[in-house]
Amino acid sequence: MRERTIASHFARAALGGARRRGFDYSGLLQQLGISRQLLDEPRARIAPEQFTLLIQSLWKALDDEYLGFGSAPSKPGSFAMMCHASIHCRNLEKALQRGLLFYSLFPDAPRLTLSREDEWVRLSLDDARWWDPDHFLTESLLVIWHRLGSWLIGQRIRLEQATFSYPRPEHGSEYDLLFPCPLMFDGEQSSLLFHSRYLTMPLLQDERTLKHFLERSPADLLSRPDDGDSLSSRLRRLLSRDTARWPDLEAVAAHLHISPQTLRRHLREEGTSFQELKDQLRRDIAIYHLGRADLSLQQIAEQLGFSEPSAFHRAFKKWTGLTPGAYRAQEL
Predict the structure, then answer these.
(1) Which of 73, 163, 237, 327 is a good FRET partner for 312, with 20 to 30 A between their CA atoms?
(2) DSSP assignment of 26-50, as one string?
(3) Which residues have a Cβ under 8 Å from the Cβ of 36 and sit 6 or more positions away?
(4) What residues contact 103, with CB distance under 8 A and at least 6 apart?
(5) Which residue ranges does the record assign to the HTH araC/xylS-type domain (predicted)?
(6) In the chain, what's the furthest Cα-to-Cα distance?
(7) pLDDT tens digits for 45-95?
(8) Higher per-residue pLDDT: 174 or 226
């Protein structure tokens, strides 16, 4: 219930390849409960599981794991076969090398390379040859390979830097959920930088755990934003422990053993504020419950700390551009 929701931008971007192919996805959206109103509203959000189903449905409908963005299609099942080819490697470096070798066998597949830079490793992606105006395939491949590697060794690989071959996009504010590290734009290639110590770590997964992993991946990898180690992420986890009693900024600062002024400054440096974090969490919890029939609108408002349903109604429309009722109507 505390999972971050997905910006509507990513749903619109994911559909770009289908539009390019002339595929009519209106029936698919209706089946998934994604309304045109939600899709067209820039502030709107969708639930992670809904986004996972959208990606999986598009793969099946287009018969292409690259969703129409690549130079040539990638047949569904390619990612799974790559994982089966890599799962028995003795460490992460061997697994990544074998996975990249697998995709290099396809002439039109995106080119990924692994290179050493002293104590660092760079995973680079040549994204110059495909049609990807919203950078959806670039973002997806970098996220998938990073999170696949983390899953294989059973711990999150800390990113030191993410570089992109294009200017900062309009949805750049969402990048902290995808790439929780310093960002660089207008680079020569899109890439991720991390410490080489991870490469020697043994794989903790096997055929049994891979079977379960592949039931929802790699779509699931895209729909689970990386909380990372930022102060914003730590605060979100702290606030989500008890949403019935929202602590104020002073109480949170005391819990973290820092002054309120220092807390405000650190959050400002991360491009956010205490109120914004609280509103984002309340928004995501509201969307979770609106997609189910477990609570009434009044009960949701009470759980989020609103004294009146009308105040919740106004706040939710400000956060998402849609009313709670409109969300529930298209979800259920």
Answers:
(1) 237
(2) HHHHHHHT--HHHHH-TT-EE-HHH
(3) 29
(4) 78, 82, 109, 110, 112
(5) 233-330
(6) 60
(7) 998 888 999 999 999 999 999 999 988 899 999 999 999 999 999 999 999
(8) 174
* Cβ-contact 203, 90 below 8 angstroms: yes
Rounded distance between C-alpha atoms, residue 291 and residue 168, angstroms? 32
Which pairing describes strands 190-195 and 159-163: parallel, antiparallel, or unpaired? Answer: antiparallel
**CA Rg value for the chain:** 21
* Cα–Cα separations (whole angstroms), residue 155 to 150, 203, 212, 235, 310: 5, 10, 18, 21, 43
Q: In DSSP terms, which residues pair with 44 in a beta bridge?
A: none
Q: What is the pTM of this model?
A: 0.85
Q: Which residues contact 269 (CB under 8 A, 6 or more apart)?
A: none
pLDDT digits (tens, 9 = 90+) for 274-330: 999 999 899 999 998 898 878 899 999 988 888 888 999 999 999 999 999 888 887
Q: What is the pLDDT of residue 224?
A: 76
Contact 304, 245 (CB under 8 A): no
Pairing of strands 183-184, 159-163: parallel
Dihedral (CA of 50, 52, 54, 57) sign: negative
What's the sign of the alpha-carbon dihedral 203, 209, 215, 219? Answer: negative
> DSSP code of 130?
S
Residue 94 burial by Cβ neighbours in a 10 Å radius (0-12, 13-18, 19+):
middle
Please report the DSSP string for 90-114 in residue order.
SBHHHHHHHHHHHHHTSTTSPEEEE
